[in-house]
Inverse folding.
């Protein structure tokens, strides 16, 4: 390969990596945590609202009727039930209302979201106080920004460029220096080795995420183009042709008794060997009622389908329930499952997690290489300080901010109004403070070291709260068949020790370099 080609690839790789480093780091970091979304959600919620673990749940009809009677229910909109399962032990109900609840209740739409004990039927919460898992999930998909979906799509596209240019740069030495790490060399050489080795090891993983990320986050552009050019703006027809049908039923104003939901659920699961995870009901109590069942096919990689029951005909109409699977929707579901690893057990998700953390380390190492290369260019000191604050502060600050979010999720009072907003504000302020500190601190290793130590201390604070104030309830949950809470606490402890050890190692190395530099000036 020509030297000029490699040189151009190096320049493109460096500048593109620097520009997208912060959002790319957040995407991979949040994605790593999101791999354990169900476990983090249980860790947040169950110590405050423990369940007995009993399998004897109340009939769904009884629960629905009880909750409808307590609110000003709007039957013309969809009522949704998210059933207990692997992702959540609670029954969640989205109940549409005729009049919106007061702003003080924390609701900004004409829905109330009820978290229900499936055994007793008791409403545990109406305010969605535990939002850590969903917040991190949103960071992964849209950076919690307006139009962030498109931004993530653009970032993942340029990440694909990084993967390709990195492959061009390392192609010659891909196998020769695969595990090269010069322990006794300069810090810059060691950082370069870390960046290269992690990049090569995570190549298939990174390529898969770059491709699927681009497909998901930019696909909306192609959907809009197709809708305008081929369907003359008819979104409903386009989605039906693609296999994502959403049927609407007009109210007849004729009252009718609703069927037994548990019986229908069992019928759906038995007919297609599936597991129902969500039920949606249109026009509840009306002759035109339509009940949808979102199901996952047992034994398949990622096949998800919808089944619809029509009250007026007391049947599952063939027009709404085609026997043939839609290849397009099967492909989309497969890509989504591959991306989120929601088909996998803890072992494979842990491997995904380690690879994602490796990519995060590679991003920080790449930023360090860019900084150290230009550190002696004093004429650009202000620009370098700004880039240092944005890149190193934005990346390492994300780790510290996440640790702060975990701590706030555990210690904030459950009854606190807008509890989730307080947690997210703590995340944002910690990230902003980290950026400012990186801007002011010219010693890279010292900043990295103290960032790791501070993050470790915050995570240790979470572990201390769990091991002192919540030991009994976490132990009882373990005995009741919910070990996820203790598992997350143990994971936080291990990660805190890892960050603390890494931080102390970086601080010792920085102190050694300072002594060497001072001796050189004497």
């Amino acid at each position: 390969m020509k030297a000029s080609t490699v040189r151009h690839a190096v320049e493109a790789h460096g500048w593109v990596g620097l520009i997208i480093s912060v959002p790319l780091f957040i995407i991979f970091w949040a994605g790593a945590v999101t791999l354990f979304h169900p476990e983090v959600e249980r860790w947040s919620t169950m110590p405050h609202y423990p369940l007995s673990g009993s399998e004897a749940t109340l009939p769904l009809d009884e629960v629905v009727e009880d909750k409808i009677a307590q609110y000003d229910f709007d039957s013309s909109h969809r009522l949704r039930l998210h059933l207990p399962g692997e992702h959540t032990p609670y029954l969640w109900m989205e109940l549409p209302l005729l009049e919106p609840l007061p702003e003080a209740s924390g609701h900004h739409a004409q829905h109330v979201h009820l978290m229900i004990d499936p055994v007793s039927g008791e409403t545990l919460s109406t305010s969605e106080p535990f939002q850590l898992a969903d917040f991190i999930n949103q960071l992964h998909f849209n950076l919690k920004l307006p139009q962030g979906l498109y931004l993530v799509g653009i970032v993942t596209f340029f990440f694909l460029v990084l993967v390709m240019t990195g492959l061009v740069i390392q192609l010659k030495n891909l196998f020769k220096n695969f595990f090269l790490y010069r322990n006794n060399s300069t810090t810059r050489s060691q950082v370069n080795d870390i960046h290269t080795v992690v990049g090569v090891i995570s190549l298939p993983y990174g390529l898969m995420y770059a491709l699927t990320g681009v497909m998901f986050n930019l696909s909306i552009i192609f959907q809009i183009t197709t809708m305008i050019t081929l369907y003359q703006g008819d979104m409903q027809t386009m989605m039906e042709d693609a296999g994502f049908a959403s049927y609407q039923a007009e109210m007849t104003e004729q009252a009718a008794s609703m069927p037994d939901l548990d019986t229908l659920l069992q019928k759906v699961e038995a007919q297609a060997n599936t597991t129902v995870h969500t039920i949606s009901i249109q026009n509840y109590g009306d002759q035109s009622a339509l009940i949808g069942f979102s199901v996952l096919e047992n034994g398949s990689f990622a096949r998800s389908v919808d089944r619809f029951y029509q009250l007026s005909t007391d049947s599952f109409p063939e027009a709404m329930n085609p026997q043939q699977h839609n290849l397009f929707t099967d492909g989309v579901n497969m890509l989504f499952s591959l991306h989120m690893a929601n088909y996998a057990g803890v072992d494979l998700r842990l491997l995904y997690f380690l690879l994602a953390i490796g990519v995060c380390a590679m991003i920080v190492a790449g930023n360090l290489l860019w900084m150290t290369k230009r550190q002696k260019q004093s004429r650009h000191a202000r620009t370098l300080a700004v880039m240092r604050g944005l890149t190193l502060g934005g990346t390492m600050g994300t780790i510290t901010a996440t640790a702060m979010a975990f701590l706030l999720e555990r210690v904030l009072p459950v009854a606190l109004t807008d509890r989730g907003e307080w947690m997210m504000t703590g995340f944002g302020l910690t990230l902003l403070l980290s950026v400012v500190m990186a801007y002011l601190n010219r010693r890279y290793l010292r900043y990295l070291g103290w960032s790791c130590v501070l993050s470790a201390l915050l995570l240790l604070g979470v572990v201390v709260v769990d091991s002192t104030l919540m030991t009994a309830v976490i132990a009882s949950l373990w005995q009741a068949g919910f070990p996820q809470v203790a598992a997350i606490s143990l994971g936080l402890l291990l990660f805190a020790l890892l960050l603390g050890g890494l931080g102390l190692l970086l601080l010792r190395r920085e102190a050694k370099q300072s002594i060497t530099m001072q001796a050189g000036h004497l």
Q: What stands out?
A: The beta strands are 79-82, 91-96, 111-116, 123-125, 274-282, 290-297, 304-310.
